[in-house]
């Protein structure tokens, strides 16, 4: 366990954000890091989630993620703290992209990995891909009306620590123009979003809170189910997710 704690301490030292206080709870294998904008809970293997301060932005990070994707986490934290490069969506060009490009971009920049989706859009700045949004196919919601179609925003991410201001709004507008959905729904990870989401600032509304989900950790893999011939190293349970919907 000492080696694992050393890995956590090395991760904290690598953070490129302002840290005011670091608390270590030896009895519960928990590191609590206070920054100028958030409280980070860093969990050792098998440690249960803590309830965060209601007045703070609280982020929960498990040991397996800290080991498998440290650069993605650091870049996301830098973006949330207003660090890194800022580009404005009005200076970008939106275009449809193919599955191969979208998957490769997500693998490099999205913390939860890549999904192909059905429709994929990207923002380009001076010819370079900076943001990607991936959507599902349309679902007929007959309880809402005979021609009512709902789509899901499956994935969205920027390039590393670059923030495209207004980027998601521009991608959504392009998708809406092409497919005229009646609504777009999505999920926000409560390990990063707690009881609110930045998506609410662009018109999404919270419609449900999804229960926490348990994952088996096998090596550096996070699995919702494991094959019979494998055994989990340990288990983690997240904070669940927010279901949000944009009514159009």
What does this molecule look like?
This protein is an alpha+beta fold and about 250 residues long. It folds into three domains: about 1-80; about 85-175, Aminopeptidase, CATH 3.40.630; about 180-248. It has six helices and 17 strands. The protein has helices at about 1-15, 65-70, 70-80, 100-110, 165-180, 190-195, and strands at about 20-25, 30-35, 40-45, 60, 85-90, 95, 120-125, 130-135, 140, 150-160, 165, 185-190, 205-210, 215-220, 220-225, 235, 240-245. Strands 6, 7, 8, 9, 10, 12, 13 and 17 form an eight-stranded mixed sheet that branches. The chain has a four-stranded mixed sheet with strand order 1-2-3-4. A three-stranded antiparallel sheet has the order 15-14-16, with no helix packed on it. A hairpin with an 8-residue loop joins strand 9 (about 140) and strand 10 (about 150-160). The longest helix has 13 residues, at about 1-15. It is globular and about 55 Å long. The relative contact order is 0.13. The model has no long low-confidence stretch (mean pLDDT about 90).
